[in-house]
Hints:
The chain has 174 residues and is of the alpha+beta class. It contains three helices and eight strands; from the N terminus they run αβββββαβαββ. A six-stranded mixed β-sheet has the order 1-2-3-8-6-7, with helices on one face. Strands 4-5 form a two-stranded antiparallel ribbon. Helix 2 (78-98) runs parallel beside helix 3.
Amino acid sequence: MLRLCAVFVCLSLLVVAATCIPANPPPGPRNLHVKIPGAAGLPEFATAVVDTWTSTVYLSGTLGTLNDTAPPTLVAGGVQAETKQALENIKYFLEYLIGDASVDALATIVRCNVYLSDPSPKASKDMSEVYRQYFGTTNPPARMSFGGASLAFGASVEIECTAAPHKSQFFNTL
């Protein structure tokens, strides 16, 4: 009986894996490393990596920095101001990649990882208040928050996201 269960599990995994890989992959590279114009950041990081087979966007950690500044400059005001600016930056990046103003770019986000330099409940509450303004409470993306991280440029907040725009609304600008 145990062998039968093991065989069933293995076959199930093979079926799932086979459905995730397209039969005729699109031409060109699978992963596109994208630098978004105006995005403040370090030259060694891509702003995003796009999996062209699945239309999945992996956004690098985004700080609450003003765009078009070198070196990157954090907005003043602490956790809430930085969270708001980081989410505005994420929205801008996704709007650039999707290239269609009719698409709610933030609604394409399926997961966020939030890093806070201050692990206190107050910092988490301040970040969550702003986060809810952008994602609401009805159908927000999956989220993980971590406190006590030492962030670049002395930032209070860093947010990385994974987005999954529908293929029909994607790659308009790439």
